[in-house]
Sequence to fold (423 residues):
Amino acid sequence: MEQAILGGLQGLINGFLHLEWRSVVMIIVGFALLYLGIKKDCEPLLLVPIGFGCVLTNIPLADLMGDEGFLRTIYNMGVANELFPLLIFIGIGAMTDFGPVLSNPSTFLLGAAGQFGIFLTLILALALGFPQLDAVSIGIIGACDGPTAIYVTSKYAPHLLGAVSVAAYSYMSLVPVIQPPIMRLLTTEKERNTIMPAMIGSVSKTTKLLFPLVITVLGGLIAPKGLPLLGTIMLGNLMRESGVVSRLTKASENEIANVVTLFLGLSIGATMAGDAFLRPQTLIILCLGLLAICLDTACGVCFGKIMRVMSGGKINPLIGAAGISAFPMAARVAQKEGQKYNKKSYLLMHAMGANAGGQIGSVIAAAVMLSVLAGMGIIR
Amino acid sequence: MDNFTFGVTMMICGMGGTILTLWILSLVMRLLGKVFPEKKGGK
Fold:
């Protein structure tokens, strides 16, 4: 009898007895992510489930990421097989209006310049001794695109998934803090004052309908390994522009995206177990991720300056910073910075074009990267 | 493959491929915009 009672009491304190310092630190990290999401409004849709998943997975003996654990079931259901990021992409495609970039297709190039950070960071990660596929996953933080980063990392460096995802989403939400100092540093007052003419060109419905088909076929032929990424975002966009499947479009951008976001966030948080996350390399990955986004911004602004010269001074290089995938946050930053220096400057629609170009650019960059890796025989 | 070769290849083929792909897409979309212009008085 006494033995049974003692055994029963032992069962109630076993959790405390097995609590390691790593678990305690990671639970605090989970709380910090929850704080950022709830109190600071930093990507709450992702950081709240990630933070909670992090707390759940670090409570000892619950074994939620064990073979039978519910977090493992969710992880296997959609992260291990890369399904969740692709479902999110259908929603993103359904939500995004690519009209601004289609009315001025040259802004696609700003979207390309905004991807330089991916490749420069990849080289830096290699120089710091990361294995090649780990370096690819770290570089992809520079895509400024959470689902793309998760897709690539879950496939080729799943052990880095927690660090890469947290870096990608945290820095995306910090774009309004990270970008402005770089934009000011790289531009002169005269450049920042440039007033761009209003966008007058509009895009026909046929062009908007053909856009997702052209990107899918052409992009898929150039970079077939990235077709899942390209195909899903373009499917969502085709549904949006066709206007004939509004139920599917609404489901993609609401119900499906919401459910998948919850599962995706929980699964990512679940990968943040203390022994896997609390390593010096996590800190290095977070630093490299920040650097990647700084480099994206710098290269985008520099390309904007080149376009300014080529256009005879008609382009405000601040819109170059919007050539990343953080949509529409980066466009708003460009608009806000432009108005700081010239109240008559309305850069928003131009910046939205660059931003939409950045969204396509990040997916194309990932797709090209995967196809180059396949071409080199590094992945199958 | 050594890291130097890998890094340089990724930079040239990866970044070059990205720019080239987006440039081709911009040309195609410009062409489509001209072939299918927005009709005046359209929404």
User: Anything to note?
Assistant: The mean pLDDT of chain B is 89.
